[in-house]
Structure formats: structure tokens, C-alpha cells
């Protein structure tokens, strides 16, 4: 990490502290996330399979992870640097609400990034204003948050998304998750961009459900056949709620905006529009009248079924995820199948004992394809460099393109990863307040 000069702290999250830094070789300004937990073995780092996923999720509205470095058992992620997050922007302009055009622009960018993510088999699960980074009005989805092995908690996942943006099926501890959890968060964020305060500011998990009921009314409980939290269901069933309509909470929002929020924040995950469908909502296109909406939504191509059953997940401890993710993690037998299928291109290269040596090597892991990655040359100070990108031009025949004691991964490995189910957990809830 001597190549980087740390300038200032940009943020302090559950998993890591983020610093603005400058690359002393290229003078590029970057954001370095220093993970809070130690990584004693490369194997642990390599269990962050979503690093490979991030490479797949190359999109203008998804933050770019440029490199990974491990030094003295500390792990660093080097990202492109952004100026603000959406929470900071709202806080700074509290007296000056966004125009609907500004909100439309932010939402459209977020939905484009999300649509790309969902189509590629991942979902974020921790969308919130702090994780939406903005520079010059360009928005990028960030925080693929390092998280613990999913298997340590399924199916009673508590730490899936920050509470205020957490979908009801998660609050009710349903064992089934779909990308619709992200769409719920999108609805809550959209409302917040109008109100500059959270739509459902629950102070506890049960209070979160109460707050939702106060706006949406009680759900049809048959919507959640997988729900495990019977006590929460019972508690809500026996409570009367004062009702406040979304339109009353957001007097500055257009009918189109209210309609979109209402659809996104549907109790039933199946009734929430997908990211692609949301982008086709009249909120984004005035020439599509609201009354025409049902017809058009029904004609939009169906999304792939990304539903997961958390019961299927294996129970290996300490598997870490850089968590943008939930891609679909297979149960153990399925995992074996995938490994067998990929054999020589399997992830075994990641567990090479050479990586785990006593000399504390700095390992840089270049993640962008050569045309995007400004650091082309091997990093001289690094005894080991893992590079994915050159293999797109090189087959597995011949020497690896970099001169270090590195490993290379054939591009033919990537299609397997697309099929591969895996999953990540979002960071634990971190309550935030304006003011
Ligand atoms: N690439 C970046 N450019 C600029 N600022 C960033 C960048 N990445 C993160 N930050 C800032 O650092 C904060 C914390 O980062 P991040 O959310 O990735 O950490 P975390 O530990 O995963 O947090 P959380 O507790 O939300 O899971 C962000 O809210 C953002 O303000």
C-alpha cells in the first residue's frame, strides 16, 4: 500500500473505514476501504467470491472495484472515488428539496445499475442513501459490504439491509429472498428523496413493521407463507394502526411518483415492479400515462427467476462476501457439481499454499479489464499479483501475461460463475439519523 498516500477519511462503516487516497504512481485519486477484520490467509480473502461478481457487474452506475491488496493481515479495497453519498447531499440541502427532475435522474441511474445487477443474478440487499454515491450528478451503487458467511445465519437472517429500507419478507424472517427486496428499498429511497426523511423510520424490527402498517395497512398474511416470525405476525395482527397515505406524507410528489412508490413498497414481493419495469413507469416517461400502465407492465419481458431458498445454503463458517451480492449460492452437493464441472478452471487456484506465506506479501489484485484499468504494469513491489483481466486476451496456453509469481484465470471460468448460485449478507444495521 506504499503506492497510496491516504488523504482523509470518507466514511466509517460496519465493515471498513473508507479513505480518500492518491496513487503516487498515477496520481489517480481513489477510495480505499480498509477492512476492520483481519485476514490471515489469502484463502479468506479469496472466499470473497463476489469480487469476481463485481467484475461481472461492470456498469456505469455500479461503483468500480479496481484492486484488492492484503498487507500485514489487513485487507484493502481500492475503488474509484466519488464525491458524496446521497444521504450527505440530502443533509446538506435540507431546506432545498430536490426537483422531481433531479429525483428522476437519480432514480433512473440507480434502477439502471440495479437492473444490470439483477439480470446478472445478484442482488444488493443493503440499498440505502449512504450506499448511493454521487459525483457531478452521476450516481453509482456502492457498498458491496463485507459480510459473514451466509450459512452462519440462514434462514433467520437479521442483517439483511439496513432496517429502514428492509423489506417486510426480511423483517418477517421469510427464508425466501428475491431481488424484490431491493425494489422495496428503491421505493423507500424514492419517497425519502421527496420528504428528506425516511418513509419507514422504525426504531426496532417490530417498530419497523408497525411503521410500515401505518402507511400500507396490514398485509394479507398468506403473502408470507415462508415467514418464520410468528410472534411478529401475531403482534401486528392484534394491533390497530392509524393510517396515513403515502400521498399525504409526500405532498410535493406527483401522482406518478406516488404510484411508483406505492407499487415498489407493496407488501407482496411479487407485486413489486422489477427494475426494468420501474424504468418503464410513467414517472420516468411522461408520455406514458398512468392509466396505460398495467398493460405495458404486463408486456415487459419477465425477469429470470432469482428466488433463493436460504435453507439450501451450506454451513461453512467464516466465508466472507464482499457483499453486493446475493448471487445464488448452491447447497453443498450442487457446489461440488459446479467444481467438478469447472475442474481445471476451478477456484482451486485461489487456495494455492504459496499465497499463504509468512512473509506478509502485499498482493494486488487487478480487477478491471485492461482498457479500463489504468494500472497496466505489474506492481513491482508485489511478490504476487493476481490478475484477471489479461486472460481475456490469452488462452490458458502459454505463460501468464504478468511476470510475477501470479495466477491467472481463464475467461472460460466466468460463464460458470454466472450460473453459480451464491449469496452474501449485508452489513449489520447501522441506524442513521438526519440532524
Ligand atoms: N468509492 C467511494 N468513494 C467515496 N466515498 C466512498 C466510497 N465508498 C465508500 N465511501 C464512503 O464511505 C462510507 C462507508 O462505506 P461502505 O458503505 O462501503 O462501508 P461499510 O463498512 O460497508 O458500511 P455499512 O456499515 O453501510 O455496511 C459510504 O457511505 C461513503 O460515504
Automatic annotation (TrEMBL):
<keyword id="KW-0723">Serine/threonine-protein kinase</keyword>
<dbReference type="InterPro" id="IPR000719">
    <property type="entry name" value="Prot_kinase_dom"/>
</dbReference>
<keyword id="KW-0067">ATP-binding</keyword>
<keyword id="KW-0808">Transferase</keyword>
<keyword id="KW-0547">Nucleotide-binding</keyword>
<dbReference type="InterPro" id="IPR008271">
    <property type="entry name" value="Ser/Thr_kinase_AS"/>
</dbReference>
<feature type="domain" description="Protein kinase">
    <location>
        <begin position="4"/>
        <end position="284"/>
    </location>
</feature>
<dbReference type="Pfam" id="PF00069">
    <property type="entry name" value="Pkinase"/>
</dbReference>
<protein>
    <recommendedName>
        <fullName>cyclin-dependent kinase</fullName>
        <ecNumber>2.7.11.22</ecNumber>
    </recommendedName>
</protein>
<keyword id="KW-0418">Kinase</keyword>
<keyword id="KW-0597">Phosphoprotein</keyword>
<dbReference type="GO" id="GO:0004693">
    <property type="term" value="F:cyclin-dependent protein serine/threonine kinase activity"/>
</dbReference>
<comment type="similarity">
    <text>Belongs to the protein kinase superfamily. CMGC Ser/Thr protein kinase family. CDC2/CDKX subfamily.</text>
</comment>
<dbReference type="InterPro" id="IPR050117">
    <property type="entry name" value="MAPK"/>
</dbReference>
<dbReference type="GO" id="GO:0005524">
    <property type="term" value="F:ATP binding"/>
</dbReference>
<dbReference type="InterPro" id="IPR011009">
    <property type="entry name" value="Kinase-like_dom_sf"/>
</dbReference>
Amino acid at each position: 500500500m506504499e503506492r497510496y498516500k491516504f488523504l482523509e477519511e470518507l466514511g466509517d462503516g460496519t465493515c471498513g473505514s473508507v479513505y480518500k487516497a492518491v496513487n503516487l504512481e498515477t496520481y489517480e485519486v481513489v477510495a480505499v476501504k480498509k477492512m476492520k477484520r483481519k485476514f490471515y490467509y489469502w484463502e479468506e480473502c479469496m472466499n470473497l467470491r463476489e469480487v469476481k461478481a463485481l467484475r461481472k457487474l461492470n456498469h456505469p452506475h455500479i461503483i468500480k472495484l479496481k484492486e484488492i491488496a492484503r498487507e500485514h493481515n489487513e485487507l484493502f479495497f481500492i475503488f474509484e472515488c466519488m464525491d458524496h453519498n446521497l444521504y450527505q447531499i440530502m443533509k446538506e440541502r435540507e431546506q432545498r428539496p430536490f426537483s422531481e427532475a433531479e429525483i428522476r435522474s437519480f432514480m433512473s441511474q440507480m434502477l439502471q445499475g440495479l437492473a444490470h445487477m439483477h439480470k446478472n443474478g445478484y442482488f444488493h440487499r443493503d440499498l440505502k442513501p449512504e450506499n448511493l454515491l454521487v459525483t457531478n450528478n452521476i450516481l453509482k451503487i456502492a457498498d458491496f459490504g463485507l459480510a459473514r458467511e451466509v450459512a452462519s445465519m440462514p434462514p433467520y437472517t437479521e442483517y439483511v439491509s439496513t432496517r429502514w429500507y428492509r423489506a417486510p419478507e426480511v423483517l418477517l424472517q421469510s427464508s425466501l429472498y428475491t431481488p424484490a427486496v431491493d425494489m422495496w428499498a428503491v421505493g423507500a429511497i424514492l419517497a425519502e428523496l421527496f420528504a428528506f426523511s425516511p418513509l419507514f423510520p422504525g426504531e426496532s424490527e417490530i417498530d419497523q413493521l408497525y411503521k410500515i402498517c401505518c402507511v400500507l395497512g396490514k398485509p394479507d398474511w398468506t403473502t408470507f407463507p415462508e415467514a418464520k416470525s410468528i410472534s411478529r405476525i401475531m403482534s401486528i395482527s392484534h394491533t390497530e394502526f392509524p393510517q396515513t397515505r403515502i400521498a399525504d406524507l409526500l405532498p410535493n410528489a406527483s401522482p406518478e411518483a406516488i404510484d411508483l412508490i406505492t407499487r415498489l413498497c407493496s407488501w407482496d414481493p411479487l407485486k413489486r415492479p422489477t427494475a426494468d419495469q420501474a424504468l418503464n413507469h410513467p414517472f420516468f416517461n411522461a408520455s406514458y400515462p398512468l392509466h396505460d400502465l398495467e398493460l405495458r407492465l404486463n408486456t415487459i419481458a419477465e425477469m429470470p427467476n432469482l428466488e433463493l431458498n436460504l435453507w439450501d445454503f451450506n454451513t461453512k463458517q467464516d466465508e466472507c462476501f464482499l457483499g453486493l451480492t446475493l448471487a445464488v449460492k448452491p447447497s453443498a452437493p450442487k457446489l461440488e457439481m459446479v467444481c467438478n464441472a469447472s475442474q481445471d478452471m476451478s477456484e482451486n487456484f485461489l487456495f494455492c499454499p504459496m499465497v499463504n506465506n509468512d512473509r506478509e506479501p502485499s498482493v494486488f489484485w487487478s480487477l478491471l479489464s485492461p482498457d479500463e484499468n489504468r494500472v497496466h504494469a505489474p506492481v513491482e513491489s508485489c511478490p504476487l499479483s493476481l490478475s484477471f483481466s489479461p486472460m481475456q486476451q490469452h488462452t490458458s496456453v502459454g505463460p501468464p501475461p504478468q511476470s510475477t509469481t501470479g495466477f491467472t484465470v481463464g475467461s472460460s471460468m466466468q460463464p460458470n460463475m454466472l450460473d453459480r448460485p451464491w449469496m452474501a449478507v449485508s452489513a449489520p444495521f447501522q441506524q442513521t439519523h438526519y440532524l
